[in-house]
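ok so i was messing around last nite and threw this chain in just to see what happens. nothing serious, just curious
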Amino acid sequence: METIQRCHWVNNDQIYIDYHDHEWGIPLHDDDQLFEFLILEGFQAGLSWITILKKRDNFRKAFDNFDALKIVKYNEQKVEELMQNSGIIRNRLKILGAITNARLFLEIQQEFGSFNQYIWQFTEGQVVVNQWNSSLQVPASTPVSDAMSKDLKKRGFKFIGTTICYAFMQATGMVNDHLINCVSYKP
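result:
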């Protein structure tokens, strides 16, 4: 029986396999989906991505399917409701950060016409295709994620350091970091 080669971080959990095979590294240009990843990456800070993936459906329900227009209207009562929701990461600063980020996301849409237009400018609208042989070669950040983080922070975004930005870039296909021996690698 032939073994399928996947990236080093994929374990035998089906949710991880499905995420790797059908989402991670595939170029994403839909504003709503980009916003979802932006928020989820912020909640992931300090935790494992599998934790977020397993709670993703709960996050979608709790955060109105990541509808930024609804999230910006969240008040203290809604924050308290989210703090009681055991299906998500109950971190007040991250919840408040998501509300702030929703407002700023909408501002970027107004300024650039779409969040997609804004965020993909950091890679000049192109996928950065890497050719890694080993997981040890894959960086945690790059000058591009540094620039993205710096600009987002200047605009007031929360939980948006360079490592989070690089993970966002990987997840949304702005960068292709599949190892060259991975079934999903496409040069």
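not much to say yet. Residues 92-112 form the longest helix (21 residues).
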